[in-house]
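Your task:
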Amino acid sequence: MRIGLLTEGGYPFVSGDARLWCDRLVRGLEQHEFDIYALSRSRQQEDEGRVPLPPQVGRVRTAPLWTSEDDGVTHGRRARRRFTECYGELVGAVCAASDAASGPASADLADRFGSALYGLAELARDEGGLVGALRSDAAVRTLERACRAPGALRTAREARVPDLLAVAAHLERALRPLSLDWYDDAGLGAADLCHATAGGSAALPGLLARHFAGVPLLVTEYGVQLRSHYLALGPDAAAPAVRALLASFHGRLAAEVYRRAEILTPGNGHARRWQERCGADRSRIRTVYPGMDAARFTEAGESPDRSDPDALVWVGRVEPAKDLVSLLHAFAEVRKEEPKARLRIVGAPAGPEGEAYLGHCRALAAQLFPDEAEGVHAVGDNPVSFEEIGGPEAPTPADAYAAGAVVVLSSVVEGFPVGLVEAMFCGRATVSTDVGAVVEVIGGTGLVVPPRNPRALAEACVALLRDPERRARLGAAARARALELFTVEQNIAAFHGIYLEIVSHCPVRRVVLDEAGEPLPFATPAESHVPGRWTGPTARVLPRGIPGWATGAPVRAKRVAAAEGVR
């Protein structure tokens, strides 16, 4: 079958999100054809280039979400009136206050938002683009009327001109996929299935392909886009009116995506609960865990005795969300019970904020643990070490995990804990804080404590350091669980089955015509879904919405009956 893979700021760009997962998926499903439709986030991302693509990728089409160039389309009076009506309905649904008990949008508001969204898409298809219209003064005035209308959000009614301009600019960027030429027979209209690798803007082309050509949509979310927007719109990021309006827009868009997708595949139970809260039907949700390469950790997993029995190991990106401060205070309690214990912190800082946080953690470690020496003439040694992957002590992540008897995760915010799964592949016992999908991943093969609780973290670490047999049992169970649930192979097999399930229930029915413009029954056989070209060179395919009789002379009943084999 032909898959339209939809990404935003991801594959096939070198610096894209979820790049490795997408590449493994495409390479693992080599029996299918893939067309990639990628939205880029910056010029730098495009300049950094793309990853090498396998032969089953037929085409790559990209479009920027960051450029400020106008599309040069000028609308006539009728088109402007049509735009004002549709955009007014869209922002009216965004500005309207909804009942919190009914989710992000009531049924009426959801229908209103969806109808307006598709109305704008049809206008863009008919008139050639909406970039100029979405940036116009008319768009800002329409938004202002919606904010001042009866029943609007209280914070929306307080919006000032700068707030309206900021919201209108954001909506223009978010709605740029409406103006793309991706939805005809040469683009997504020719796909058997659209697979969006995220919600939000990445799934918007899939919604339009479904609307225009009846192509079913599959949405995968390993990180919930709506949650990311909520976190990005903090009190210091924008004014209250801007935050309220943008949160409402992204909530409406997420609800429309979840409502129209044939199947949703969250990467964990945390993402699944977000989708259900936004109105997704439970019967259409399939949890598919991310696939990771277990081969890199085989040697460490099969050699559990090579670890230091007194060492605790933390591996990850150094940033405030990882709460290394609590880990250092917990280790101070561990040292009181186990004087020989050591703590290895292995990881690089994440940006300038991470650099500052790493410096703070180094200073705290020096304060809590003065250098210790065995004698007056010996050089002191600190029980806490800060290292990076690639150094002499930890050339690879597997070496870092293998060096410790217990792997610790101390985060206060976590999505899917990749580092925890890597430790499980290495057969190591773990102590983790109860955040994100940690409990779901661990499944009883490690110890879990509340976040921001150094005393509980210390007690769990001491319990495992003092009991090597328990460490061995938990490590073996963790490795077995990881090999069963979190490998690349299980991820690819799950998506292969979901692809077949969707296509079997929601086939795209296209009308195939011959040279005379007459329909050809059974012109698209089942074997046409394997790589290759099976239809005749003279046949032409019409989109689902255009019947054959509309393109040529009327067909007599006898000829149609004969062609269909009716007697």
In short: Residues 399 and 509 are 53 Å apart (CA to CA). The first strand starts at residue 2 and ends at 8. Residues 100-105, 373-379, 527-551, 553-567 have pLDDT under 50 and may be disordered.
